[in-house]
C-alpha cells in the first residue's frame, strides 16, 4: 500500500483536493479531517482530483459520500475528477457513480461546475 498524500489548492470560487496514493481505512480519517476543514474554513465548493489515487476501499467511498452530503448542506458541491481504476469500479458496482458529478479532469470539473448552479443538489444527478 502507498501512503495517501493530500494536497489542497484554494481558488477564489472553489478548492481542489488532490489525492495521491491509497485511500483505505487507515488514511480515510485523515482525508475526512482535511475535507471537513476545507468545507468549514475555506470553500463549500470542492473538486477532488483522484488522478493519483491507486486504491480505494469502502472507507474511502464512505468519506467521499459524507463529504458530498456536507458540501450540499453548506449550499456547495463536490465533484470528482480523474476517476479510474478501483475507485471507478467501486462506484459502478455500488451504483454510486450516479451520486457524484464525475469529470475527466480538474479542468472539465471547473467548466461544468460553473455552468451549473452551485445550489443544485449533487445527489440528484441530472445527466
From TrEMBL:
Gene3D superfamilies in alphabetical order: STAS domain
Pfam entry (one): STAS
CDD domains referenced in this protein's UniProt entry, alphabetically: STAS_anti-anti-sigma_factors (cd07043)
Top-level taxon of the source organism: Bacteria
Alphabetical list of PROSITE patterns matching this protein: STAS
GO molecular function: anti-sigma factor antagonist activity
Domain called STAS: residue spans: 4-113
PANTHER family recorded: ANTI-SIGMA FACTOR ANTAGONIST TM_1081-RELATED (PTHR33495:SF2), ANTI-SIGMA FACTOR ANTAGONIST TM_1081-RELATED-RELATED (PTHR33495)
Similarity remark: Belongs to the anti-sigma-factor antagonist family.
Alphabetized NCBIfam families for the sequence: ant_ant_sig
Protein name (database record): Anti-sigma factor antagonist
Organism per entry: Streptosporangium saharense
Amino acid at each position: 500500500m502507498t501512503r495517501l498524500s493530500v494536497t489542497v489548492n484554494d481558488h477564489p470560487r472553489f478548492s481542489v483536493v488532490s489525492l495521491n496514493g491509497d485511500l483505505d481505512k487507515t488514511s480515510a480519517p485523515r482525508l475526512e479531517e482535511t475535507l471537513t476543514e476545507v468545507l468549514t474554513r475555506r470553500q463549500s465548493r470542492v473538486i477532488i482530483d483522484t488522478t493519483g489515487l491507486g486504491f480505494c476501499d469502502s472507507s474511502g467511498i464512505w468519506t467521499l459520500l459524507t463529504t458530498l452530503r456536507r458540501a450540499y448542506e453548506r449550499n456547495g458541491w463536490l465533484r470528482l475528477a480523474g476517476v479510474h481504476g478501483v475507485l471507478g469500479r467501486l462506484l459502478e458496482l455500488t451504483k454510486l457513480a450516479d451520486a457524484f458529478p464525475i469529470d475527466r479532469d480538474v479542468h472539465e470539473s471547473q467548466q461544468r461546475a460553473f455552468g451549473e448552479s452551485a445550489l443544485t443538489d449533487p445527489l440528484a444527478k441530472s445527466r
